[in-house]
Amino acid sequence: METVIIQPKRQKFEILFMLISIVAIVGVASGLIAISKIQKEESVKLKSYQIDAFLDLEGNDQGIFTDLHAAVRVIEALHIEYGERWPTVSELSTTEQLSPFVEDLVWKERGKHKWTLFNQDQGNVHRAIYVGKSFDENAAGNFLILSEHFHTIDGSYYKGVNKEFPFSIWYSKKWELPNSSNISDGTLIPSGWKEIIARTGYDELKRLGRQ
Amino acid sequence: MANGVNIKVENLSLSFGKNEVLQNINFEAKAGEIHCVIGPNGGGKTTFAKSLLGQTYHNGKITFEWIEKRGIVGYVPQIINIDKTLPVNVLDFIALCIQKRPAFLGVDKKFKKQVDETLDKLEMKNKSKYLFSELSGGERQRVLFAQALIPNPQLLILDEPMNSVDKSGAEVFSRIIDGLKQNGATVIWIHHDLEQVQKIADKVSCINKTVVFSGEPKSVMNEKNLLKIFSSRQGE
Amino acid sequence: MDFLYDIIRHSAQNLVQAGALPDSFKFAFVINSLLCALIIGPMLGAIGTAVVAKRMAFFSNAIGHSALTGIAIGIMLGEPVNSPYISLFSFAILFAIFLNFSKNKSGMSHDTLIGVFLSASLAIGAALMMFATKDINIHILDGYMFGSILTASNSDINLLLAVAILAIGAGIYGFNRTIMSGLNPALAQVRGVPVLIYDYIFVILIALITVASVKIVGSILVEALLIIPAAAARNITRSLKSFVILSVVFATISAVTGIVVPMEFKIPIPSGGAIIICATIIFILTLLVKIVRRN
């Protein structure tokens, strides 16, 4: 024999449940946001295929990178100005007089890079690769810009494809370029190219502060 | 004797806000007994059944005394709130009710035989692929009844709607319920057909907010008592 | 997981070179978006059947709109603009719990209550979003409203996959009980289903699914993919089995076509819109079938 008292439904259960879940969710969320902020403040770790612009590059290489770092943004702007067409190498060097494309004295000293543009637009995805082959490998290595973004219908919103920035800058001491129709992170890395990461001043301060 | 349950309800009261639905109900049902509950519409019969199931904010004491151990409770709701366009057929519905295995994977093997037999007994086997929306009120009632029989209940609570069970259905129901009773189960049956009640009930209780009368049908279902309760429905 | 995605992308690139796949499949983001479609389709298609069965279409709509508020809060709290997931998830879950709580406790009609919540969540979301993004590109708003599958990153896919596994697992385990508690709570309770808890779990699950899909389909349209395939399947089926299967198939077809067709034919429309248009076309076809059958 088993005796069971049938209990009435609990009145306060639901209110209690809601209050507990509100407190729990807000608590966990603020904890997670706090943690993620701390993590973000720690300096960016480099991946195996990345190099640091300030620590791993020297002399002419660093100079060219600094120029490129500024130039990519100009190229982005020109791309819009030209009606979503990538500027050609000669437009960059002659019309725009943009370093490091302009063939001036510094260009000669830094390895006389021969630049080539591979335009790989497809639909609303715009993709350009500017490759700079060093003429004098003792003066500087080879550089490559991978610029890739897409447009929405109204053409205004644009952003990198799978990357925080719509472009990346790559460096390789030895000249080995994958098939030009198939240049991507996946093919550049095995060919010995390294992505150059420019740390912000804030990163640097953190790094120096820790040392 | 197989498992059944003795139910004892003492001073059951329940109100929704200021509206008192049940008031001081004292009620008893024994194992192996068909206890019919009658009473006017809106008299609190359905609420009473839900209190027995522990689904209301009631006051008072409800005790289930299982003869062996805690048994299986079957419940036949009055209506099922099913979307007309929802593709739930008879077998799907029963699978939804009785098993854990997702109903869209079909009826669980261990219930298959019993489902077939039950539908057969209720003369619903040829309609097992019919959508719920294609069934008549009486047929829906049969399906609702079928699910309550799987697995075999030791306490069956039926909340029967007015007018939806057809004549042949009523006979089938009575036969099956009689079988449960023979096995010692307790049956609480909210019923509307007084003629039927007189035939099948061991005990009858009339609930209209409180228990108006209770006892064996022969002794309590006299003209005077019934008139008192159902006078408002005489003209219908 | 990134490793697995790399393998998939790489084999796709090989297939492109072999001429087996269209040219656009060589881009990582195309593969990413297809992976998303293949996760999102079955997930929304399957759970959508339960949403339709429980008549919670508008409920999920309101949760979808609440995503905007969650994003805005995230941006204001300094989470990454492109993935303010902590705030997004927390807010959507809180919103779902609160909405269900008010539904249970107020005794108001569902339509009215959800109507209030739906418009309020959209208004607050849009307002906060404008405020929060005053320093950032305003087009982020478009991306979240209409979805931009092309921006799906590895971590977005990871999140989507995790939620999909959770949702489908929970969906299979609790399918009967969830539907039962919608059809007849009293009967479900007799069968031992803790109806209240199941209701809350279900709305939380919808919140999770919605939020995980927002980036791909957009907050405005996410519930459309939850409902239209299920509604289309409902038009032409006569059992739960075919209901669930067809809903999954329709949702997956819609998601994949909605991504591939605009890309291949260079039609400049957002992914969310294209996916819903495909689903709607399927719905209209099933409706025609239904009408023809009736007569």
What is the CATH superfamily classification of the largest domain in chain B?
Answer: P-loop containing nucleotide triphosphate hydrolases
Mean pLDDT of chain B: 88
Q: Largest beta sheet of chain B, briefly?
A: 6 strands, mixed
What is the percent of helical residues of chain A? Answer: 25-40%
Element-level helix/strand string of chain A: EHEHHHEEEEEHEH
Main sheet specs of chain A = 7 strands, mixed
Quote the CATH topology of the largest domain in chain B: Rossmann fold
User: Helical element count of chain B?
Assistant: 8
Q: Give the N-to-C terminal Cα separation of chain A.
A: 76 Å
Helical content class of chain B: 25-40%
Tally of distinct domains of chain A: 1
Report the uncertain regions of chain B.
none
The strand count of chain B comes to 9
* Cα radius of gyration of chain A in angstroms: 26 Å
Q: What is the 3D shape of chain A?
A: elongated
Which stretches of chain A are low in confidence, meaning pLDDT under 50 for 5 or more residues running?
A: 153-157
Question: What's the layout of helices and strands?
Answer:
The complex is a heterotrimer of chains A (211), B (236) and C (295).
Chain A: E1 2-5, H1 13-41, E2 50-52, H2 59-81, H3 89-95, H4 105-109, E3 114-119, E4 125-133, E5 142-151, E6 158-160, E7 167-172, H5 185-188, E8 194-197, H6 201-210
Chain B: E1 5-16, E2 19-29, E3 34-38, H1 45-52, E4 59-66, E5 73-76, H2 90-98, H3 109-121, H4 137-148, E6 155-159, H5 167-182, E7 186-190, H6 194-200, E8 203-208, E9 210-215, H7 217-220, H8 223-230
Parallel strand pairs in B: 3-7, 3-8, 5-6, 6-7
Antiparallel strand pairs in B: 1-2, 1-4, 8-9
Helix pairs in contact in B: 2-4
Chain C: H1 2-17, H2 28-53, H3 57-76, H4 85-106, H5 110-132, H6 139-146, H7 154-183, H8 185-190, H9 195-217, H10 222-236, H11 240-264, H12 271-294
Helix pairs in contact in C: 2-7, 2-9, 2-10, 2-11, 3-4, 3-5, 3-9, 3-10, 4-9, 6-9, 7-9, 10-11, 10-12, 11-12
